[in-house]
Design goal:
Structural class: mainly beta
Radius of gyration: 17 Å
Order of helices and strands: EEEHEEEEEEEHHEEEEHEEE
Strand order of the largest sheet: 4-3-15-8-9-12
Strand content: 25-35%
Number of strands: 17
Shape: globular
Length: 240
């Protein structure tokens, strides 16, 4: 039986070395994964690892992935906020059942840096009414990312820092060592809820400093080491 209309293309993220493209299956996101951001959003931050509770998850549509460039200011909002994040890419399917922590690393293909764009006013209104906040987090072009690198090309994640500049001015900065739940933790917790597959992305959460974007703003997101070497980057512009 033939399709009734052409299938939409799968979102793909280029590799930084130009050797291929990563096809996207699903996009999982982690909320409140830096204590300083949790506090700036009015949520309690854990005082120690034993008080972490459970991570907060939400999803974005796979076709919301965009590779930098021009990103249109979305409709129905007056508060488009930036959240710079480490993006984890899975290159293998997880085994059935809850993933063992020591098996998590084998699923990871590589990493990128991206933005979790948020319609903050819509999210806040939904939260105030105790409703889901999908409209605040899931919309067209809400997940711009940069080129991806294989995991073996990067230093240890806990030695790296993440930053976001808007119009040349620093807005966000944090250390990946300060993630409340690290990559292995998150993959284990996701495996309790979903069948993880090759092509899945995980946006790992943002440090403090989230703020509004305006049409015409330029962003430069980066993950770098203590010597200033940039390992992952994404840049683009908010347009009308």
């Amino acid at each position: 039986m033939s399709d009734l209309f052409p299938a939409a293309p799968v979102a793909r993220i280029p590799l930084a070395d130009g050797s291929g493209q990563f096809p996207v299956r699903r996009v999982y996101c982690v909320g409140r994964n830096f204590a300083d951001h949790a506090r700036e959003m009015g949520a309690a931050a854990p005082a120690s690892a034993t008080e972490r509770g459970q991570p907060v998850f939400f999803m974005k549509p796979a076709d919301a992935i965009t590779i930098g460039g021009s990103v249109p200011y979305p409709p129905a909002t007056h508060e488009l906020h930036h959240e710079v994040e480490l993006v984890v890419a899975l290159g293998k399917d997880a085994p059935t059942g809850v993933l063992a922590r020591e098996a998590a690393s084998a699923l990871v293909f590589g990493f990128a840096v991206g933005l979790d764009l948020t319609r903050r006013d819509l999210q806040a209104a939904a939260k105030a009414q105790g409703l889901p906040w999908d409209t605040g987090k899931s919309f067209d072009h809400c997940a711009p990312v940069g080129a991806m690198r294989r995991k073996q090309e990067l230093p240890a994640l806990d030695t790296l820092q993440i930053s976001l500049h808007i119009n040349g001015q620093i807005r966000q900065h944090g250390h990946l060592a300060d993630l409340i739940w690290d990559v292995a933790d998150i993959l284990v917790e996701l495996s309790r809820l979903y069948a993880l597959k090759a092509g899945d992305l995980i946006f790992m959460g943002t440090p403090a400093g989230v703020a509004a974007l305006q049409p015409g703003d330029h962003w430069q997101a980066a993950i770098s080491d203590s010597n200033g070497q940039v390992w992952l980057q994404s840049h683009g512009r908010i347009c009308r």
